[in-house]
Write a structure and sequence with these properties.
149 residues, alpha+beta, 5-stranded mixed β-sheet, 4 helices, 5 strands
Length: 149
């Protein structure tokens, strides 16, 4: 795997219209928003994974040409989460599903649709960070979220 200076493997194909710049901005968005919800991870990790996937949809919807499905019932229950320019009934090459996972290997999901899948892999450091002033343990909100695509 040949990573560029920004950490992306430019040999990996991307969906039409989606760029590394879009993905980089989306990663920043997901990390910032997920960092506010770390407590949820320690209470219910599977729910946190779902929230990370939702944050990925929000990020790509606002930062890329891939838009959420216009109909809430379809967007919440069916493939795909996003399509190029919000197209209804998109072809597989313009369909994008967003999933969150802590797994560094194959993830659990229902992958029975042709199309693109973006998996927001994340790691949570369970060790509270000390406060620079007091040296006391920080709260879970002070634990970093690292997203790896």
């Amino acid at each position: 795997m040949a990573l560029s200076i920004d950490g992306f493997d430019r040999s990996v194909p991307l969906p039409p219209g989606l760029t590394i710049a879009h993905i980089g901005a989306a990663i920043d968005f997901v990390e910032e928003k997920a960092d506010e919800l770390i407590e949820l991870y320690f209470e219910q990790a599977n729910i946190f994974s779902g929230v990370v996937g939702i944050l990925g949809v929000r990020a790509l919807d606002s930062l890329s040409p891939y838009k959420r499905h216009k109909h809430p019932d379809i967007a919440q229950q069916r493939f795909p989460d996003l399509s190029l320019r919000g197209r209804l009934g998109p072809p597989p090459m313009e369909s994008l599903e967003s999933k969150g996972s802590t797994r560094p290997w194959a993830i659990q999901s229902h992958y029975n649709h042709a199309g693109w899948y973006i998996v927001w892999r994340y790691a949570i450091d369970p060790t509270p960070r000390g406060s620079p002033k007091t040296g006391q343990s920080g709260s879970p909100q002070n634990r970093p979220v690292e997203t790896v695509i």
